[in-house]
Amino acid sequence: MLNPSFSPIIALTPLQWILIGVGGFFVLIIGGILMKYFSLWLQALLSNASVSFTSLIGMQLRKVSPNVVVINRITAKKAGIELTTNQLEAHYLAGGKVPRVVQAMIAADKAKIDLEWENATAIDLAGRDILTAVQTSVDPRVIDCPSQDTNKSTIAAVAQDGIQLRAKARVTVRTNIARLVGGATEETIIARVGEGIVSAIGSSLTHKAVLENPDNISKTVLAKGLDSGTAFEILSIDIADIDVGENIGAKLQADQAGADTKRYQAEAEQRRAMAVAQEAEHQAEAQKNRAVVILAEADVTKAMAEAFRSGRLGVMDYYKMQNVVSDTEMRNSIASNDGDDS
What span, in angstroms and rounded, lies between the C-alpha atoms of 144 and 238? Predict the structure, then answer.
């Protein structure tokens, strides 16, 4: 028979109950963490790319996605590339694209391209798409010149005979991994190729020579080493299309002739205006001289009147002088009529 004083509930102090509650809380937290990362930990362990629970918890505290780090570590390990969680975490915290860098390293390793982790992360942090660069290095890419993003569909150039040619080229390039950091982009390639095409056409004597051998343009442009200082290696430059445009030389000559005509007309108009001005000046001068003569004649009349008053000139002398004047005018009139008859 049971002792009536026996109790199945063990009497605990309040402090013991608090310690048990806190311990249970921590057990629940640890159990939740283990359940959260158990699948990821087990996946890494089975893939021979083990990651400790401590590392997983540390990633979470450092605001690093454990899924990104562990999955990419497993991917690299399966491809034969050894990457530590510290390397992946550091690139993640620096703002890099961890999955694309890992994929780029795998692609480079399969293509026998020398690409170290430091170089790959530096290229990624520089803003370049490292995966696309590696893919372009393996599989060359074709760039249209001019670019389809611009409003121009062709490159216009003028041969020495004045005929305009419109060309379109396609440039096959391969990424140069060693020059990817600090190297010029494809916009520079397009600009240099366009400049080379204009120069090659401009140095041709006739447009017919260009149309007969358009490959000469490609050879001339390719020989200039246009990929220097860029992130690409130019493999070939092909003229996709070339058409005859306007006769720029004749148009320029016509425009020049029109400009010369206007200039000569302006010069002639200037000379005519100067002649009109000079004629007006001469007419004004003649009027001035006539006024002087009239004044002089008035002085003669005054002198004659003064001579009459003073007695130095008589009436008979005046008549004789008038007869001489009349005789002179008559002789001038007869001489003028004889000249007209002849």
Answer: 10
Q: Tell me whether residue 288 is in a domain.
A: no
Strands 232-247, 163-175: pairing is antiparallel
- Look at residues 189, 238, 246 and name the one whose alpha carbon lies nearest to residue 214: 238
pLDDT in tens, 193-207: 888 889 888 888 888
Residue 177 contacts residue 122 (beta carbons within 8 Å) = no
Q: Identify the helix (H) or strand (E) that includes residue 168.
A: strand 163-175
Q: Containing domain of residue 178, as a range? A: 140-251
Give the pair of three-digit tokens for residue 149.
């993003």
159-162 long-range CB contacts below 8 Å, 24 or more apart? 159/201, 159/202, 159/204, 159/205, 159/206, 159/207, 159/209, 159/210, 160/202, 160/203, 160/204, 160/205, 160/206, 161/205, 161/206, 161/207, 161/249, 162/247, 162/248, 162/249, 162/250, 162/252
Dihedral pair phi/psi, residue 192, rounded to 5°: -70, -40
For residues 237 and 169, give the distance between their C-alpha atoms in angstroms, rounded to a whole number.
Answer: 7
Task: Examine the fold and report which residue of 194, 228, 251 is the final residue of a domain before the chain moves on.
Answer: 251
CB 145 within 8 Å of CB 222: no
Domain final residue pick, 92, 115, 137: 137
> pLDDT class for 162, splitting at 50, 70, 90?
confident
Number of domains in the chain: 2
What residue type is 309 in one-letter code? R
Between CA 234 and CA 245 the distance in angstroms is: 28
Question: Which residues, listed in sequence order, are joined to residue 237 by a DSSP beta bridge?
Answer: 171
Q: Which residue has the tokens 């660069």?
A: 133
Q: Is the peptide bond before 214 cis (omega within 30 degrees of 0)?
A: no
pTM value?
Answer: 0.57
DSSP 102-160: HHHHHHHHHTT----HHHHHHHHHTT--HHHHHHHHHS-EEEEES-TTSS-SSEEEE-T
The answer to whether 174 touches 232, Cβ cutoff 8 Å, is: yes
What residue spans of 183-247 are helical by DSSP H? 186-202, 207-212, 215-222
pLDDT, tens digit (0-9, with 9 covering 90-100), for 277-312 = 888 888 888 888 888 888 887 777 778 777 777 877
